[in-house]
Amino acid sequence: MSLVNARELFQKALNGGYAIGAFNVNNMEIIQGIIEGGTEERAPLILQFSSGGRKYARPEYLRHLVDAALETTDLPVVLNLDHGDTYELCKACVDSGFTNVMIDGSKLPLDENIALTKKVAEYAHPRDVLVEAELGRLAGVEDDVSVEEKDAIFTRPDEAERFVTESGCDSLAVAIGTSHGAYKFKGEPKLDFERLEKIQERLPGFPLVLHGASTVLKEFVDACNQYGGAIKGAQGVPEEMISKAAKMNVCKVNIDTDIRLAVTAAIRKVFSENPGEFDPRKYLGPARDAIQGMVRRKIGILGCKGKA
Fold first, then answer.
1. Which of 67, 74, 82, 289 is catalytic?
2. What are the tens digits of pLDDT across the range 253-273?
3. Domain containing residue 17
4. Radius of gyration of the chain (CA)
5. I want to staple 106 with a disulfide (CB 3.0 to 4.6 A). Which of 134, 181, 239, 301 is the partner?
6. What is the per-residue pLDDT across 171-189, written as a single tens digit (0 to 9) for each?
7. What does the mean pLDDT of the chain come to?
8. pLDDT score of 59
9. Which stretch of DSSP H or E encloses residue 205?
């Protein structure tokens, strides 16, 4: 199966009331776990590399890892750049075969964000590549993205309508209370669904995206702590909130922290129970299996099982 862009996948998700998981990738085992989990559940998949993930895996390796994954499945798979922060980076990813790119101009004033997104879209669209943008600012830390809670800004529905109309983006990441990292809420978890409803009223039938939407699964946090970690007070977005958003106009849900926690929990367990172990296959294999199981669970929450 060759890579696809998300145009048809998003339309089917909108019509069917479900969302597609966008899973961040940093190495071979993560790709394998995602592909194997998605194949078992017959779900469409979005593999995405952040700028940091792209630097880590190196562009020379990246496409070959993805191409190898495509040889093992017949699923529709999107390759997305997550949080591209410059036109030049987005262009490089378009030229190297990405089928979707995200340009993140959320830190810019509205007019500058629109102009930057429009520039990327004008390059990407003739090459059949879709463009995701972001309006509003999520708190938290993820790779090169770091926003203090006091600097977080929720997406304004009126600005969202203008942004999409003028920028030409194909999907929009909105800020409704999610945040990057493992510490998303200090108190009771809450998402602004009223704001989400107003945004989709302004943008009927338009694909929306949730970033910072990992659940921070308790089983992985507990395992990390049980086997020597110190991840205290971690809290993510409850699964029922993700399911509710997926039934609305949210077509893409980003998942990164849950992958990191699954990997770390599995590896810590191996090292704790077998302190003499030094074969990477013996700890990266269980990490891959943990990702596979986590991906299958996420697919169920998002409602995209059997939608490939």
1. 82
2. 999 999 999 999 999 999 999
3. 7-302
4. 18
5. 134
6. 999 999 876 555 555 667 7
7. 91
8. 87
9. none
Count: domains in the chain: 1
Using CA atoms, how far apart are residues 139 and 196, in angstroms rounded to an integer? 17
Torsion angle of alpha carbons 269, 274, 277, 283, nearest 10°? -20
Q: What is the pLDDT of residue 174?
A: 95
Q: How far apart are CA 106 and CA 307, in angstroms?
A: 32
CATH number where 253 lies: 3.20.20.70
Helices of type H across the chain: 7-16, 28-41, 51-57, 59-70, 87-95, 110-124, 157-167, 193-202, 218-226, 239-246, 257-273, 280-302
d(CA 199, CA 205): 11
**Crossing angle of helices 110-124/157-167, nearest 10°?**
40
- How far is it, in rounded angstroms, from Cα 75 to Cα 20? 13
The pTM (predicted TM-score) of the whole model is: 0.92
Q: CA 165: distance to chain centroid?
A: 24
Instruction: Convert the pLDDT of each residue in 49-107 to its tens digit.
Output: 998 998 898 988 988 999 999 999 999 999 999 999 999 999 999 999 999 999 999 98
Q: Measured between alpha carbons, how far is 190 from 187 in angstroms, rounded to an integer?
A: 9
**Residue 147: per-residue pLDDT:** 41
Question: How many other β-carbons are positioned within 10 Å of the β-carbon of residue 17?
Answer: 11
**Residue 308: inside a domain:** no
Residue 183: predicted pLDDT: 57
Q: Which residue has the tokens 């800020």?
A: 175
170: tokens are 């194909």
**Is the CA virtual torsion 46, 299, 262, 291 positive or negative?**
negative
Sequence length of the chain is 308
**82 has catalytic annotation:** yes
